[in-house]
Amino acid sequence: MTWLAPPDGSPGRPAVFSEAAIQFCLTIKVLFKLPLRQTTGMVASLLKMAGLDWAVPDYTTLCRRQKTLVVQIPYRRADGPLNLLVDSTGIKFLGNGEWQARKHGVQGRRQWRKVHLAMDTATSDIRAVEFTPSSDGDSPVLPELLDQIPEGEEIGAVTADGAYDTRRCHTAILDRQATPIIPIRKNGRPWKADCPASCARNETLRATRHYGRAFWKRWTGYHVRSRIEAKMRCLKAFGERIAARHPDSQTAEIQIRVALINRFNALGAAEIVRVA
After folding, report:
1. Which residues contact 42 (CB under 8 A, 6 or more apart)?
2. Mean pLDDT, the chain, as a whole number?
3. Any idea where the domains of the chain sit in the sequence?
């Protein structure tokens, strides 16, 4: 890892620390749930124990660089096409806790953000992440998640819940030559067959009506989507709320959480065997 930033020739004062150094410091902050001042002290202690006489970014530098940090998220690629599980969850960044709100009532502002994830079923690594205001819906974000997957990587299937049963989502999935596994909404009606996405969705609607929704879910393997629900819990294991206040800093904090989750996955996971 390069600790100091190489000269880039751009006008103005050059950055002292590299992007990797800033991401390392912020990773320590997220992992141990530390304030910025304590983060600089812990990083200094780690460097001292490692015998490295390196300068440590001060807390002001970390706060400022977090807004523009391009987080590198590691992931593993499995053999065969990429099968994605897509879902979203809310995370708080301002307001009282749940217990205080229940006991004393809601006081002051309570603000949330939405985290949208796309997870690889083979490796359980998170391959795409988006961070939006709480007022944004789930379905408009799916094309942006798919855009984060390299064009040359084949996508086999995209599994999501009924909130993604929209024309835009089906079109975005078929544009990547993937199969949408999305249950039709209970009040769903046939679409006008004016594009391949509408025809494929109408076939799903006919199969659901003929065989039943429960059989369709077993037949398509839809229930594997529960794995991303568990991944949401892993994301919130680093804290039920995010510490940053600026939207760009909040995005970087969530991306660092995702990078940590993928690194933990690479260390190994429990093998579950059904015995009864």
Report:
1. 28, 32, 34
2. 92
3. 82-245
Question: What pLDDT does 208 receive?
Answer: 92
C-alpha dist (Å) from residue 26 to 46, 73, 228, 261, 276? 14, 13, 25, 15, 44
Kindly tell me if the per-residue pLDDT of 217 is higher than 80: yes
Is the whole model's pTM more than 0.85, yes or no?
yes
Stretch 237-247: mean pLDDT: 91
Rounded to 10 deg, the angle between the 213-220 and 196-211 helix axes is 120
- The set of residues, in sequence order, having a beta carbon less than 8 Å from that of 155 and lying 6+ positions away, is 81, 82, 83, 84, 146, 149, 173, 176, 177, 178
Task: Decide which of 3.30.70, 3.30.420, 3.40.1710, 3.90.930 is the CATH code for 82-245.
Answer: 3.30.420
Q: Tell me phi and psi for residue 38, to 5 degrees.
A: -70, -30
d(CA 139, CA 105): 32
**Minimal CA–CA distance to 69: which of 14, 20, 13, 118?**
20
φ/ψ (deg, to 5) at 218? -70, -40
